[in-house]
Amino acid sequence: MARNIGADGRTVYRAVITQTNRVGQQWTEREGPYSKLGAARARVTFWRNYWARHDGTAEGHVEQAHTVWAPVGEAADPIAAARAAGLREAADAIEAQLRAEGYTLDCVCESCTPCLLRDYPTMFRARADAIHPATEEQEQ
Ligand SMILES: [Zn+2]
After folding, report:
1. Is 27 inside a domain boundary?
2. Based on CB atoms within 10 Å of each CB, which residue in 10, 11, 92, 116 is the most buried?
3. Domain span including residue 51
4. Distance 62 CA to ligand 1 centre (A)
5. Sign of CA dihedral 4, 75, 66, 123
6. How far is the CA of 99 from the centre of ligand 1 (A)?
7. pLDDT tens digit string along 84-120?
């Protein structure tokens, strides 16, 4: 079954688990990514309980990452999220400034300041979505 883990902009989680067996051998494994923090935490708990029953120990913690996907063979843009956020901030700032100056954004004259400027926030947001889709509600 397909799992939609880590769509662009989503935070994903992994469990980092250090296990020690009954003869003292120790190793660290990473499990994930998982879309939910609880799923990664559950893996730490699983291994802690497993080794409690098998004369060893396990300790671990959970890490998070911000996902940026790209086709295989193409470089991912590591600052895509920041670039998109900057464009969204600019869009919000333009609209806020127009409102602060007393303009409404629903004029239809096509020649006043808001009519000339109001397309830019829309363009910026569309560009931001093309670079890095808006972050969806995070699941915990
Ligand atoms: Zn106008």
Report:
1. yes
2. 10
3. 11-66
4. 53
5. negative
6. 13
7. 889 999 999 999 998 898 888 788 888 888 888 888 9
Distance from residue 2's CA to the centre of ligand 1 (Å): 49
Q: Are 122 and 96 in a shared domain?
A: yes
- Tell me if 108 is assigned to some domain: yes
Domain assignment present for residue 1? The answer is no
Question: Full-prediction pTM beyond 0.85?
Answer: no
Residue 136 lies in a domain: no
Residue 134 identity: A
C-alpha 109 – ligand 1 centre gap (Å): 4
Q: Which helix (H) or strand (E) holds 39?
A: helix 37-53
What is the number of domains present in the chain? 2
Co-location of 88 and 62 in the same domain: no
